[in-house]
Automatic annotation (TrEMBL):
<comment type="similarity">
    <text>Belongs to the glycosyl hydrolase 1 family.</text>
</comment>
<dbReference type="InterPro" id="IPR033132">
    <property type="entry name" value="GH_1_N_CS"/>
</dbReference>
<dbReference type="InterPro" id="IPR017853">
    <property type="entry name" value="GH"/>
</dbReference>
<dbReference type="GO" id="GO:0005829">
    <property type="term" value="C:cytosol"/>
</dbReference>
<dbReference type="GO" id="GO:0008422">
    <property type="term" value="F:beta-glucosidase activity"/>
</dbReference>
<feature type="active site" description="Nucleophile">
    <location>
        <position position="386"/>
    </location>
</feature>
<dbReference type="InterPro" id="IPR018120">
    <property type="entry name" value="Glyco_hydro_1_AS"/>
</dbReference>
<keyword id="KW-0326">Glycosidase</keyword>
<dbReference type="GO" id="GO:0016052">
    <property type="term" value="P:carbohydrate catabolic process"/>
</dbReference>
<dbReference type="InterPro" id="IPR001360">
    <property type="entry name" value="Glyco_hydro_1"/>
</dbReference>
<protein>
    <submittedName>
        <fullName>Aryl-phospho-beta-D-glucosidase</fullName>
    </submittedName>
</protein>
<keyword id="KW-0378">Hydrolase</keyword>
<dbReference type="Pfam" id="PF00232">
    <property type="entry name" value="Glyco_hydro_1"/>
</dbReference>
């Protein structure tokens, strides 16, 4: 008789793939859609690679049935996608655009008809431009009200059909890139504003979760966080402490709020000292405490390595040294990592790790460490909502796309995830990033992630033909066997 091994993937494990509206849909002004901050930002000269925009992207809006057919042929059990807020409510808080809503309903129906579990992300960075113009976007509490309204529209329309929902995608990344580095919209470099906006987003996230639990009692919701574990450069206690500091600033700052409803005292104290702590009202504290996610979404790409900063910083020095908090902001062109630094913590290269073409460290064991840490700290079921390799794929003469490097990458990460399950981590599913190739926010179509190649470049839309890569067939087999023979 067959005895289920403790380290098997659960029978209902959600093997999936992910995407985001702006990166795939195109149809940016079709059927009543309003512009988002990305529609506007990408059209400003010099903001994106070779001026690429998501105006057409991979035209998933018109080709979604073809894409779902490919998912079904692959045996995909879950598909994570995001809803474009301004497609559903063009100005963010006013009239509902039925045509936009219908697109998502049809997509959900198509997925369900093919036995694919839809996973809906409510916010994947494309804020309605009108909210930015009228209220300064996430810097205003008006945007919380608007988000709540938008969520309500979706919960009421799709809550009976869709079980899994992601409230917020990589808040740590979009706030840092948008309000500190100014390389994402709204293009601000101001730490005070960054922390204020971040707090407003926490409140919006909490409202969305609370409302979900009222309106969709049988569903499950959680945020997706871009988690990267911090390592000390070596066993020098000063570096170990630096890694602790990094962990607090890069991860706990967000995860404690999501999962425990409180800001970590250590980080808060530093921010107060620097005069950049957000204004937190008493009612905010109550709200944050009252909205517990059902699962924690983890997007895993890589972590970071910390070395001590100067330990005896005066407040003034500290201000000078204070550079930010993002775990993985790598700039492809210079080939150089943008190192996040905070007081008492310098980010340095890890001498043991190889890097991708975009100088992101490749660290499968870090994935296991990440899962273990998050499970131990928050004890919630975990849904891997992203993990994947950005690379330059080419079509061989025989028409194949031999992305063996991607297979290798995914295999090594899935193996470590399997070990984490053996370790006792409760994991619901794994969505590789991404299903088809898609627009990389700042890297056009050069940096590809998909299981399915899309025939287009920055300059030429070509025929947008879909071609399954070798990794597509590999993942198909893995799903078929429920990961049993992976080694
Ligand atoms: C995180 C983001 O959620 C996604 O939109 C992005 O394309 C991938 N990581 C790869 O950078």
């Amino acid at each position: 008789m067959y005895h289920k091994q403790l380290d098997d993937f659960p029978a209902d494990f959600l093997w999936g793939a992910a995407s985001a509206a702006y990166q795939i849909e195109g149809a940016w002004n079709v059927d009543g859609k309003g512009p988002s901050i990305w529609d506007t930002f990408s059209k400003i000269k010099g903001k994106t690679y070779e001026g690429t925009t998501g105006d057409v992207a991979v035209d998933h809006y018109h080709l979604y049935k073809d894409d779902v057919r490919l998912m079904a042929e692959m045996g995909l059990r879950a598909y994570r996608f995001s809803v474009s807020w301004s497609r559903v409510i063009p100005d963010g808080d006013g009239r509902v655009n039925e045509a936009g809503l219908l697109f998502y309903e049809r997509l959900v129906d198509e997925l369900l008809a093919n036995k694919i579990e839809p996973v809906i992300t409510l916010y994947h960075w494309d804020l309605p431009q009108s909210l930015q113009d009228r209220f300064n976007g996430w810097e205003s509490r008006e945007t919380i009200k608007a988000f709540k309204k938008y969520c309500e529209v979706l919960y009421r329309r799709l809550g009976k059909k869709v079980t899994y929902w992601v409230s917020m995608n990589e808040q740590n990344v979009f706030t840092t890139l948008g309000y500190r580095w100014a390389i994402h919209p709204p293009g601000v470099t101001d730490l005070k504003r960054m922390y204020e906006a971040n707090h407003i987003i926490n409140l919006a996230n909490a409202e969305a979760i609370k409302l979900f639990h009222e309106l969709v009692p049988n569903g499950k919701i959680g945020p997706s966080f871009g988690y990267g574990p911090m390592y000390p450069l070596n066993a020098d206690p000063a570096n170990v402490l630096a890694a602790e500091n990094g962990e607090s600033f890069n991860n706990d700052w967000w995860l404690d709020v999501y999962c425990k409803g409180t800001y970590p005292r250590f980080v808060r104290k530093q921010l107060v000292r620097l005069g950049i702590a957000p204004t937190v009202l008493e009612e905010d504290e109550i709200l944050l405490k009252s909205a517990k996610p059902d699962f924690l979404g983890i997007n895993y790409y890589h972590g970071g390595t910390a070395q001590q900063n100067r330990l005896e910083l005066s407040d003034k020095d500290c201000e000078k040294e204070f550079l930010g908090t993002d775990p993985y902001l790598m700039q492809p062109k210079s080939g150089q990592a943008v190192t996040p630094e905070i007081p008492m913590f310098n980010a340095v290269e890890n001498p043991y790790l190889q890097k991708t073409d975009w100088v992101w460290e490749i660290d499968p064991i870090g994935f296991r460490i990440a899962l273990r840490r998050v499970q131990a700290r928050y004890d919630l079921p975990i849904f891997i909502t992203e993990n994947g390799l950005g690379a330059i794929d080419t079509i061989a003469e025989n028409g194949q796309i031999k992305d063996y490097y991607r297979i290798d990458y995914l295999k090594n990460h899935i193996l470590e995830m399997k070990k984490a399950i053996t370790d006792g981590v409760d994991i619901i599913g794994y969505c590789a990033w991404s299903f088809t190739d898609l627009l990389s926010w700042l890297n056009g179509y050069k940096k590809r992630y998909g299981f399915v190649y899309v025939n287009r470049t920055e300059h030429e839309e070509k025929d947008l033909r879909r071609i399954p890569k070798e990794s597509y067939y590999w993942y198909k087999q893995l799903i078929l066997e429920n990961g049993v023979s992976i080694k």
